[in-house]
Amino acid sequence: MITFKKSIIFLLLSIWLSLSWATSASSHDDFLECLSHHTINSNSISQVIHTPNNSSYSTILNSFSTNLRLTSKVKPSIIITPLNESDIQAAIYCSKIHDLQIRIRSGGHDYEGLSYISDTPFVIIDLRNLRSISIDTENKTAWIQSGAILGEAYYRVAEKSKKLAVAAGVCPTVGVGGLFSGGGYSMLSRKFGIAIDNIIDAKLIDANGKIHDRESMGEDLFWAIRGGGGTSFGLIVSWKVKLLDIPEKVTIFNVTRTLEQNATQLVYKWQHIADKVDNNLVLRLSLTSRESPVLRGKRTVYVSFTTLYVGGVNELLREMKKSFPELGLVKEDCIELSWIESVLYSWFPVGTSLDALLDRKIKDLAGYVYFKRKSDYVQHPISIDGLEGLWKLMNQQGQSPPDLMFTPYGGKISDFSESETPFPHRAGNIYQIQYGLNWQKREDSPKNIARIRKIYRYMSKYVSKSPRAAYFNYRDLDLGVNNKGNTSYAQAKIWGEKYFKNNFDRLVKVKTKFDPTNFFRNEQSIPPLLSYA
Ligand code: FDA
């Protein structure tokens, strides 16, 4: 731990060094030398530092880069995979004096690749080695390092107790670092809130290399990193979360209906109940377009009602009969299992061992593909006409089928005010939409990007307005990017208000206080006030 006096010296030295280095081109060798002089243990250097000359460099660089749409002319000068906090302090210090940007990567799931792509010289700090999870079942808390994936966190908690759970995200391969700092929606969110609603402490390293916990960082910074995106403020090494009481059995079902099976009316009705049903119930829809099973040669929309109910099958059937009898759910559609099995079941075939939750490879994209995602919030049910217009766009022949996800809000998510955390999408939102399109060939990129933007344009009259809100963790650079070099407040406000609404200004104030020189920056990082334009 760097003492206060040491960190002042560190700060002065780094200001002096950045000034004196500004005119000389930063060299790879100098950077390496700096790292080796600053606490990276010489015995572990090959485990921590990966240069383009090492075979480990491309393996590590490409290990999460599944979205081939994202390319950059600049490759990272070096990848650092720290084994401890002092490795991170050294990486921050040396990046600063050599004027290299850093990109922090935990699980590598960023939709626009901001954790491993940059157009200016940069280094990646990849947290894959920092993924310990320490669990206190008595006090129902856990410290989880950012480099862990959600599957690991779920697995380790369930290993200790089948009566405790973590509210984080649906997909087990997502990294804790990115998900926790941007929100975190899971199948438990209507009952327990989103991930950030259950974070009670964090350990952060700031731009001066100083390590903070909640007490030393203060409530403003602790507020900002829970939903405002950690990467604008510092590197979060670990998070302390509340563990949540979960019954030994939960119930799931996945029932699919096509347009020929009344899906339009079902989705229309679903919009009226999704945010109001029992908080134990998350009734999520995934929608895609494929050939119709009854009308040969024609496409139809398939709507899958994917559910987790925190409780037994009989209670679930009672709730469904009361709120959504039109779906016609029967006991045979449902499976009772433990919460940890329900996480596994949503991603893997029945019979897969729980150990699959420890695998970091992204599953749902079936290897390397090109993809684009966008998001919206719906505050008033979309009319039948509106839905039919959407189906028409989804069903266009000869095009890759879009995948849409309608995720219900309400329940515990609405118990927090819009300003309690930077994540503002609380009461008043019925559901969130994620638009997704995957394709296989580079030459198809322009037409598919145009297509998803067309669907998004069509939806403008049905979704939230002023601002048209979006989920920060579904990163979308179409919403706007910072100016290169000098990050302007005015430029950042364009995308910032969409993700954070009125919380954007408070995030700017926190940024100004804790990172006034804008060391932690990317295409969508919060700007400090000094660069107001
Ligand atoms: P990655 O490592 O790419 O980081 C994302 C951003 O956070 C980057 O800007 C990075 O610099 C920053 N960052 C990462 N670690 C940091 C740290 N320790 N300190 C500071 N900054 C840090 N979301 C959701 O809410 N619920 C869900 O169920 C899913 N499911 C899902 C499935 C799949 C297949 C994908 C690709 C994405 C999701 N998401 C999601 C979205 C996900 O929450 C979002 O992409 C997260 O930012 C991913 O976090 P990673 O750590 O994996 O990404």
Number of strands: 18
Please report the number of helical segments: 16
Q: What integer value in Å does the Rg equal?
A: 23 Å
Query: How many discrete structural domains?
Result: 4
The CATH topology annotation of the largest domain reads as: Vanillyl-alcohol Oxidase, Chain A, domain 3
Fraction of residues in helices? Answer: 25-40%
Strand order of the largest sheet: 15-12-14-13-17-18-16
The helix/strand class is alpha+beta
Low-confidence segments, given as residue ranges, are 1-26
CATH class of the largest domain: Alpha Beta
In CATH, the architecture of the largest domain is 3-Layer(aba) Sandwich
Query: Which molecules are bound besides the chains?
Result: dihydroflavine-adenine dinucleotide
For the sheet with most strands, the description reads: 7 strands, antiparallel
Report the end-to-end length measured between terminal Cα atoms: 37 Å
Strand content: 15-25%
Shape: globular
Overall pLDDT level? 91
Output the keywords.
binds dihydroflavine-adenine dinucleotide, single chain, Uridine Diphospho-n-acetylenolpyruvylglucosamine Reductase, domain 3, 4 domains, alpha+beta, Uridine Diphospho-n-acetylenolpyruvylglucosamine Reductase, domain 2, 533 residues
